[in-house]
Amino acid sequence: MSKVIHHFTTTVPFWQPRVTPIKLDEATPAQLDALKVTPSNTKVSEYVLVLARDAETLRERTPLFNGIMYNRGGMSRAERELSAAGASTVNRCVYCLAVHSSRYNQLTKTEDVMEKVFADGTDADIDPRQGAILDFAVKLSQTPPTVTEDDMAKLSKAGLDKAEILDLILSASLFGWANRLMHTLGDPVEKEG
Amino acid sequence: MTDFLKTTMIEAAGIGAGHPLAEMLAGRSDIFTMTQQAHDAALTPNDPGGLSHGLRASLAGRMARATGADGLADHYAALAAAAGGAEDEARTADADFDGGADAWLSAIVRHTDLVTKDTKAVVAGDIEALKSAGVSEDDIVRLSELAAFVSYQARVAVGLTLMEALS
To answer: Which residues contact A148 (CB under 8 A, 6 or more apart)?
Structure first.
């Protein structure tokens, strides 16, 4: 049994499932469709092989996820990653946070913002726009969410227009979804060797 | 292509044609259409496995209520009423009902609440508890997707309500 990681890191761990992944060579046509397996794309992660147990939802989730994180216009890709990271700190999804904090670092070519977020959460000393985005994502991720009209006003003051605020809501909410799968159905473990 | 104004998400927020936010939201109409497709897959799948449409809608109402999305919870209540089904399953919409004497149902309700309200606290033993109560591995993933999807949709609903205040 590999060692489970509990601390925040930008090094993407392995993911060890708590539910048995399906076997690709035993997958039903509906599962193969949801997995988007083609002769030229046969690499499927264990995480996705676990989710294939609910092929109908998996099939809809993948394009929705990509749309929210990568579609054109609105809030920048890096800021959507920051929003995802904020949600992932609330739910302590170590794996999700590693993936999305490292993507934020790649897109912005910085490391200091995420280092401060890991250390100080919403008290992190970062620029006001990034701080407002992080704070909103964290508050929206609590149950029930603690965002208020004042938080909305802070986003506007920090320079976000309505289309950007919508993307912030969508990306933070999406990680309410992703964290609830990744963090509950498996463990982030150290890569061996 | 579904008209995005007719999706559950937008209707529950009370946004119709001519609303001040409608034009801005139209820029992400594809997202709302895909959200509806995910809603249908999680709430009314062709193959529901061990989780009936009625149970799914009732649990979704419970979760939406806990997440402060009452408009969405009302939608799920209507969906549960339309699905019908077992009385104990319908009662799961009530936050005070813990599943009763049935070990399978009470394990499902316990896990639903835990994943909804305190995701970070979920540990391997919680998945084992579901298995011990007779919840199949397929149904564990189905329940997880349902809880995860509703958590997403309820937060978008809360956000849209706040955006209306801004507009």
So the answer is: B162
